[in-house]
Amino acid sequence: MSKISKFFKGGGSAASKGRGGPSPQEALARLRETEEMLSKKQEYLETRIERELAAARQHGTKNKRAALQALKRKKRYEKQLSQIDGTLSTIEFQREALENSHTNTEVLKNMGYAAQAMKKVHENMDLNKIDDLMQDITEQQDVAQEISDAISNRAGFGEEFDEDELLAELEELEQEELNKGMRDVRLPSVPSTSLPSRPGKLLAFLTSTRKRAEDEDEMKKLAAWAS
């Protein structure tokens, strides 16, 4: 019995008959077998057409009757070939439709499994408890952030004072010290006595005056450095 006969007479495994019909996988396998068989039939008919055409050319007008018979057989083979082409197109369409249907069925089945799994996971979940849990998590995160901020702050005393105010006070203290130093400096007084008339006394007077002038220069330099 040919494969086509087995296909159209419902030939199949006992398991398929027991279920009342073939599974999508079994049907797809049968369709692929049929396509393969028809493809081989096509190759056979194409070969026969070429042979008959060659025979018709060979006989030609010398044996017109044999040439016409070859052409008639060629026409029959071409008709069969055209029929097989149509059958293959129909089978291909049916196979693609079955593959798509099987794919869609598997997708829907798996989506159903996923939905059941999600439902099972959510059975023991209470939305009110979830809201309370999320609120507790948020509060604890805030507490943790406050603790982290407290730990990361610089430890030490005097952080509550303004640094600018402290610098201003330091400048005032330094100015007071400078002013006090200037008050303690005694500048030499201008001599009220007249110049001595004798050379010896005049030399002593000039030496003393120069010494006071040098002392005044030193005091000026000290005052300039202090300011």
TrEMBL record:
Signal peptide positions (record): none
Region: Disordered, residue numbers: 1-25, 179-199
Ranges annotated as biased composition (Gly residues): 9-21
Taxonomic superkingdom: Eukaryota
A GO cellular-component term linked to this record: ESCRT III complex
Places the protein is found: Cytoplasm, Cytosol; Late endosome membrane
GO biological process, one term: vesicle budding from membrane
The protein, known as: CHM4C protein
